[in-house]
Hints:
It is an enzyme of class 2 (transferase). The chain has helices at 5-53, 59-69, 105-117, 145-197, 213-267, 273-294, 314-329, 350-371, 401-405, 423-433, and strands at residues 73-78, 81-86, 94-99, 123-128, 137-143, 310-313, 334-338, 345-348, 375-383, 387-394, 437-444, 447-455.
Amino acid sequence: MINSLSGRLLILTTIFVMIAEIMIFVPSIARFREDYMLNRLERAQIASLALLADDMLDDALEAELLRNAEVFNVVLRRDEVRQLVLASPMPQVISGTVDLRENDALTLIGDAIRRMARSENEVIRVIGAPVRDAGLLIEVTMETEPMRRAMIDYGLRILVLSAVISVVTAVLLFVAMRFLLVVPIKRLVRHMQRYAAAPEDARRKIVPSAGITEVREAEEALKSLQTELTGALRQKERLAQLGGAVSKISHDLRNILTSAQLFTDRIEMSEDPVVARMAPKLVGSITRAVHLCESTLAFGKAEEPTPTLTVFPLADIVEEVMEGERLAVGTSEVALINEVPAGLKLRADPEQMHRVLGNLLRNARQALVAAGEGGTITVTARESERNWQITMRDTGPGIPGKAQEVLFAPFQGSLRKGGSGLGLAISAELIKGHGGTIRLVSTGAAGTEFEITLPKGDGML
């Protein structure tokens, strides 16, 4: 109960209301003290007027008038003459004077607190202005103990009333906040727990219904999060299924390609110059396909193998990739230009770089072919003290705006019908494994440009 939001709210509300009541209590006590003394002055004035009306009052009646006024003597100043109107013996000397005509609020509050704290019975002089201008001033002497008891009694009543008000206010606020805030929060928590039990079930997503703006915003944010999470889980499930399917296909395909390698050994022995020239490339392609199968198309397993870093001429890999694409280009008007400096050597995994450049070049070629206007694809590279930069630029139609937002997302970045949308996602992951980055530099009607940046690192040979 205490650790709950509603319990702490109840306690804090009670405390705050009590603090507010205390802030009201002190001025109230000061005001009560002032009214008490003014009341005694009024009683004394009435008694003095009775005596002034009849000078023949006996001592017993004077004493009774003083007892009713609860004072020891009364001094009335009229016409600049100070006159002792009523008098009786005082039990002790006067210890202080209170002038109600001049005291401000802070002085009255300070005097009230001091009077409450002092338990000694004293006799004080009280000076005030007569009511209805019946003279210049009126002065009485009185005991402090009866006034202090009256102040304590009044204070206790105020404290009890304050406590009752605090409890009632706290309970009302507790009920209101529980209905307006705690119940909706608990409902939100129940929805989260229910969804967590089966996040793939779209029926368990929350339906925002709160009337309070802040709680409804929280519900809408939760619904958005649940929608994104459900989609991510479904995609993850598809990737897991893809990984299992790819593993099975890769196993059988590897066996088929291994058999094909045996036939290429015989083809290399052919005396036909065209076959002899093409055979090594065929062997290299089949070998690369076997390696790819052995890694089970690593993206399907949601991870890529650690790159094996070696130093190699980048221009050779680029030319090999372009030769493979030239065969696919056929008679189309797509020109592939290799402008990589012949002496530029790269420290990376050659097989993975072949895959990255192949994916980029294939995407660019397919975009140019789909546009039906032909064009040029150019690969350049340069190096600095810290990194290598490889640029691939084409003169194609550019990438649509929506596709740019999910360009490197698996299954979403495909620009052609039937595409899997994995090429750029695989490339980005392979480059990331090298500690580098791949980014879209520019795209538009003038063409598209990608840039790959690879750090040299401390191991550069």
